[in-house]
Design brief:
The protein is α/β, with parallel strands linked by helices and 569 residues long. The chain is 34% helix and 14% strand. It binds FE2/S2 (inorganic) cluster (FES).
């Protein structure tokens, strides 16, 4: 096919009077669009990550038609296109391993397609940050519509069975306390509908961040998948993206130090996932900013934890939605929020809050009585994690473990862990510190969510439910416990974690933000660091090994971050 102009981009190509415009319109007419439809403006792409290989996003197929209706109502022309989709449970070695690839897919499709703006349809954990990262780099007006959380179910006597309830049953199964019939019943009850995890896991955390960053409509995050309200929301998103294109509301203008702070303060207030630390750093980097461990900790330590929802709290996402959703949280911590920041409506948070009616609700701790005076995520440092680590205080089971000194039991990778963790001869007791290494962004590769190391079976049988666990891995936002993750640098990148041996003393002091060992320099120098096992020589695996940054760089590829304007103060 012959093209006359290789520089003209966006939807204006459909309005071109020459050969290129003719061909653009002609090819769309072949799909069944009318002569009037191919002349509508603006042209809005819909990046749809619906996939049978990503059940959390399967409901997006139904939502897309409502988005198209909204775009047409506002005069635009909707054109849907697929992107790759990353499922948290299905993708190996890990979903994070492919997040940057998905962001590149989104960036290049948005940049190179004849569209003026884009609606991003995502949901499962990595799809939302990947789409936002790609949209920032492409820098055309973009809005996010997430899949919404799936319904809760019922298992045995638990009438409000949510995804975080699955993990204790799995642990019981490991020690022979769940029979085959119950195991089969559980399979049918984990997910009784499509949508994202039905607690404050990574998916909902990142959806809330999208709301705070001006990509998702205020109040949209917590509407359930499959609800009539979400269909109406999809229509509203379609109308709004047309308005945002007309107003030239660009992603890079949305990502500011103020909006990033707003996003992380809300993540801190809702007991959000540790994964948010990595994704927000990556998102900042696409706009030439870096948040950094110190800013994360400064924001979290001065933000009260107020959302009483699972897995850290007692209530459901639908309860928080009833209370007003994320705007209600913003209102609760209003004095900490930069309310002049722009939302996806183009109005400020100040204006949006003035439009909401707020009521007291048990899903949000009242002023003067937060669940915790500080945010749920604690950034740690120390000689074991010179560039940081993350601990999620929300939902921690045994508070005494937050100030703990114990003997390390070290596992080199997931195979070693699986082989030995339930060995009756494993030398471990309830005061031991379980250490898993070689699971970082290079070592695994892609930082699998295995940081929630299982309690050794023999200790489970003794009634032990929590232990101090450390790793350079990530953990699911649906998990809880005394778990330190994202130890940076990771073991195979020269981090001190790679020099530990079983028997070494380790101290965790959450109040002081310290994670440390007691080895002196000469002892450390005598030890052999853990090597990077990668043998990648080609393809994406090679690209990943050559260019991925550590957790404190958001695990983005170095060449995808925008030139740095600086670290936030
Ligand atoms: Fe997809 Fe939790 S596994 S959102």
């Amino acid at each position: 096919m012959s093209q006359r102009d290789l520089h003209q981009g966006g939807g204006s190509l459909f309005r071109d009077d020459g050969q290129d415009g003719l061909l653009h319109r002609a090819f769309l007419r072949a799909e069944g669009f009318t002569a009037a439809e191919v002349r509508r403006t603006p042209v809005i792409g819909i990046a749809n990550s619906a996939s049978e290989l990503n059940p959390c996003n399967a409901g997006l197929r139904a939502l897309v038609e409502f988005v198209k209706e909204g775009i047409r109502e506002a005069g635009g022309l909707p054109l849907e296109f697929p992107t790759i989709s990353i499922s948290e449970p299905f993708t190996r070695p890990t979903s994070l391993y492919l997040r940057n690839l998905m962001s590149m897919d989104v960036e290049e499709m948005v940049s190179s397609s004849p569209i003026d703006g884009v609606v991003l349809l995502g949901g499962c954990d990595k799809t939302v940050p990947a789409q936002i990262m790609g949209a920032i780099s492409a820098n055309k007006p973009a809005m996010m519509l997430v899949a919404g959380h799936r319904p809760i179910s019922c298992f045995k006597k638990n009438k409000q069975f949510t995804v975080d309830d699955v993990w204790p049953v799995c642990e019981q199964r490991r020690v022979g306390e769940v029979n085959d019939a119950d195991w089969l019943e559980l399979e049918g009850q984990v997910n009784i509908g499509v949508g994202t995890c039905n607690v404050m896991g990574t998916a909902t955390t990142m959806a809330a961040a999208a709301e705070m960053l001006g990509f998702a409509l205020p109040g949209s995050t917590l509407q359930a998948a499959g609800s009539p309200a979400r269909n109406e929301l999809a229509r509203a998103v379609g109308r709004q993206i047309v308005a945002n294109v007309n107003a030239n509301l660009l992603p890079r203008d949305l990502i500011t130090s103020a909006s990033l702070e707003n996003a992380f303060r809300v993540v801190s207030a809702i007991g959000g996932s540790t994964n948010a630390v990595i994704h927000l750093e990556a998102i900042a980097g696409r706009a030439g900013l870096s948040i950094g461990t110190d800013s994360f900790e400064a924001w979290s330590s001065t933000t009260p934890y107020v959302a009483n929802v699972r897995p850290g709290g007692a209530m459901l996402l639908s309860d928080l939605d009833e209370a007003g959703g994320i705007p209600a949280i913003v209102n609760r911590i209003r004095e900490l929020i930069h309310t002049g920041s722009v939302t996806a409506t183009g109005r400020s948070w100040e204006d949006e809050l003035n439009n909401f009616e707020f009521v007291e609700h048990p899903s949000i701790a009242p002023v003067g009585a937060p669940l915790s005076e500080r945010g749920a995520l604690v950034m740690l440092r120390g000689n074991l994690a010179p560039r940081g680590a993350v601990f999620k205080a929300a939902g921690a089971h045994d508070l005494a473990l937050q100030h703990h000194r114990g003997r390390a039991v070290v596992f080199d990778g997931i195979d070693d862990l699986n082989t030995r963790i339930d060995d009756p001869n494993l030398e471990v007791d309830k005061d031991s510190v379980l250490v898993l290494r070689g699971m970082g962004v290079l070592g695994a590769p892609g930082m699998p969510e295995v940081g929630h190391i299982p309690i050794p079976a023999k200790l489970v049988r003794e009634g032990v439910r929590d232990m101090v666990r450390l790793s350079d891995a990530r953990m699911s936002g649906t998990s809880t416990g005394t778990v330190v993750v994202h130890i940076t640098p990771e073991a195979v990148a020269g981090g001190p974690l790679g020099l530990l041996r079983t028997g070494d003393e380790i101290e965790l002091d959450v109040d002081s933000g310290i994670i440390r060992h007691f080895l002196d320099d000469s002892e450390l120098a005598s030890r052999t660091p853990l090597a990077n096992p990668s043998t990648a020589r080609r393809g994406f695996a090679w690209l990943h090994q050559q260019h991925v940054l550590q957790a404190d760089g958001g695990c983005d590829f170095d060449f995808l971050r925008e030139q740095m304007k600086g670290e936030l103060a």
